[in-house]
Design brief:
By secondary structure, this protein is α/β, with parallel strands linked by helices. It folds into three domains: 14-38 and 549-646, Immunoglobulin-like; 48-59 and 221-473 and 484-526, Alpha-Beta Barrel (TIM Barrel); 84-218, Galactose-binding domain-like (Jelly Rolls). Helices cover 19% and strands 31% of the residues. It is built from eleven helices and 35 strands. Strand 16 (277-279) and strand 17 form a beta hairpin. It is globular and about 90 Å long. The chain starts with a helix and ends with a strand. Bound molecules: alpha-L-arabinofuranose. Alpha-L-arabinofuranose binds next to loops.
Length: 648
Amino acid sequence: MNRKTILCSILLNSMILAAGAESATTLTIQTDEPSKVISPDLFGIFFEDISYAADGGLYAELIQNRSFEYSPNDNKRWNSLTCWDLVQRGGAKGSVEVQDNAPLNANNPHYAVLSFESGAGEVGLQNIGFDGIVLKQGEKYDFSLFAKQLAGTPGSLQVRLESKTGELLGEATLPPLKSGWQKYSITIQASNSADSARLVLLSRQKGKVALDMVSLFPQKTFHNRPNGLRADLAQVIADIHPKFMRFPGGCLTHGDGLDNIYHWKNTIGPVEQRKAQRNTWRYHQTTGLGYFEYFQFCEDIGAKPVPVVAAGVCCQNSGHYIPGSIKGPQGLPMDQMPSYIQEVLDLIEYANGPASSVWGSKRAAAGHPQPFHLEYLGVGNEDAITPAFRERFKLIYDAVKAKHPEITVIGTVGPFPTGRDFDEGWKVANELSVPIVDEHYYMPPQWFLSNFQRYDHYDRSHSKVYIGEYAAHDDRRRPTLRSAITEAAYMTQLERNGDVVHMASYAPLLAKEGHINWSPDLIYFNNTRVALTINYYVQQLFATNSGDTWLPVTMGENTGLVCSAVRDRRTGSLILKIVNPGATPVSYKIAGIKEGGKSATKYLLTGDPMAVNELSTPQPLIPTKSIISISSEMDAPPCSLTVIRIGS
Ligand code: AHR
């Protein structure tokens, strides 16, 4: 056994066997020893549009397939009219078809043509939203669409919000349509609440109308932003108080095939001009939640933006869904690299350039003349380290470094914590002196315990680490208390090694009931409710109790506890985290601090190791808060995280 293995097995044995020491162990915070300055950006979040995290999730749009761009490429069962139904009322007969000649614009080629053919009554279209439309009594909803009269007498379209059973919940009438594409907007107030409402558009005149970009937004979005975010979901994300937010993915960034790489420029500007695209997780991205909205959300929640761009290569797992497509990793043709590199440089100008610059002016036009203060840029997402990757990564990296030395580039070292891509990725990082590399690992809880000293041995002269995606995957991939406590134990090592681990984010962040591509996730939700996993509370406790200086803690041997102490020099607070991953309680006392006689705030997360907070959990497990005296003896219950905050 080497030294690392011996230390690990001592730690594991101590966790499993030694808990329950008869007398209280003393946790001595070494305030006199030289402290270690650690990353101020350690704990953040990772957002990816996976499991309906964006469309149907955080993005507050209520109409699904609003621009008739769904296709079998997105999902084999879909077409341009998915989620839409023809409505024929009062004996009227009509039809609907999808056309693409003379569209609203080239990025948005499909639109619906509604024909009122015969009879009296009404012909129209109905949209079921994302598993139904949620309306709240008395609240206002902004409706808009683009339309043109193609044939027949110009008439007015009636816009109705109806319950599943047809009860009217709000309505408005648009002015007579013109013969060219025009936007029509109107506000509707909901007369009643409903979880499964529909939007119904009705025409009373014979003729043909073209319809596109049919949209319905609650006015109450997060921070009341137009084209904004679902307020309750955005708020629970904000409540984590993440230091940064990585976006837009994940595999979504480097895409399923070269034609599926995420291009940020397609996602800005008026929503009807953005280019929707297939989501690698087998659905559709409207890109309504695009780069402007990501930057704005980061600013709204006080998180540094960490955009990730593809390293000029697509995902190594490409080509398994679309028949006939090329399988495996590929690089953009080299003659396309100059324009791709320019796209990356333009992103930096979009975020930080003056409002007078080409791309800064587009940010200003969207309502944000001030820069977004971009500091970090991820290049690549857990790519296979192929010759194509090496060549393209270096080109992008060199160009960013030359033009924007102020930007910290984050490289990538493959999808796993060890192995060929990991080793080769680190070689690339060392050769190029990449400032930070992105490590990913989804592993069983036991792995996190056995690797409790992973970063103690990292060479401090090499790149720093961003653990961009990690999670303890428990039995049947459930977000149990056991997995959360394991993550907490591991996160104490991230603080201890906060001089080399610069950032870390649990992944994925969001998952919608009925549309889950990946499990576990940090937050589960449906249209009306949100479930915060126990792992969420661990992330929140660490992010809201982070520090900028790490202090050593000594304790008796084989206590079974894992500890970390940090000081937040901004507030002067001293924060101690105590994790007991074992099955028996451990008594402890705190020593070594001048605040000894003072009171402190204690947060405790504990319970049944197999507890899970799900949407159906009647009493979710949450941290308890109490005021304690530092001098008293305390218990770390089995399977627990305790955070003790001394000072403000
Ligand atoms: O977080 C889910 C997926 O896991 C990400 O898209 C990808 O980067 C990783 O494999």
